[in-house]
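ESCALATION

Customer reports they have been waiting on this structure for their group meeting. Please prioritize. Original submission:
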Amino acid sequence: MSESFKVIDVDVHNEQNDSVFVPYLPEPWKSRVAASGIGMAGSGYYSPVGVLRRDSVPPGGGKAGSDPDFMLKQLVEQYDMEYAILTGVIYNISATHDADFAAAICSAYNDYLIAEWLGKSKKFKGAMAVATQDPYLAAREIDRIGGHPDIVEVIISSAARMPLGQRYYHPIYEACERNGLPLAIHPGAEGAGSSTPPTAAGYPSRYIEWHTCLSQMFMTHLVSMVCEGVFVKFPNLKVVLIEGGIAWLPGLMWRLDKNYKALRSTVPWLTRLPSEYIRDHCYLSTQPIEEPDDPQHLIDLFNMIDAENMILFSSDYPHWDFDPPTQILRKLKPEAKRKIFYENARALYKL
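Update from on-call: job pushed to the front of the queue and completed.
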């Protein structure tokens, strides 16, 4: 990357073993995690390539992505990144059944993130995690941590018990707006624990099906947030859809706009086309970017949705489908690349 294309990576997973949370937990959760770990729900689908890059295991051992110094060397310095937004993986705790346990784990993670990651480098910024089982506990946590200068975002799971636009979740969005923080939605535990099935038709058989169909969750949540009036009720809220793909968005916006013209009486709080709320309030991350055989097809799709003002670069480090900033969107015009790789994120996170 030349100096003309500075980079902010909005999805960097700082991984860790459960034991690191023990010092930050109160009882009875401290003893529980010390004895048996978190037991956090995962998708349950076998991936033949695993989840983590094998070359991202730190020289001293441990999980890939668990060493701040090695992450700085392998990712931030190698690609000359201005900032890396640390998204962790603890948001998957929202697929477990115990709301109090989930909230305690998120609080411990946030304290751990601040104490052991954000102080390591000015290039690290944090996405604080909250669990969605109890939105009032989540809102309390946002108010507790949201004012920290290196916390730039709130992150939740797209694995949920109901569509994320419903009023049940609104205390979370109110707290985000109150603290001036965007809300990120990230996949990882769809179909696990107390969450809904991972596709509209139920449970697929294989990881490739599960991974491909994750966009369905984002379609559902986005339509729900628009139609339930989230962006009317919280006019300053910004939402980042991470790892949900991009190519599905034009067709969804067209379909929703067309239906709105006939069915607007069912959503009387909307005073503009649904697509306008999406453009004004939502961002999507690049990874995993759809890559057609003809790169022009992707550029045409970007032009349909004003993508250069809605998309943020993400690498998904240190996961198996990592995208280096030097290898994607090479056919875009320089101005569009500057926005996607740097300027959109800088403005959104006030960096």
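Sent to customer with the following note: The longest strand covers residues 151-157.
Escalation resolved.
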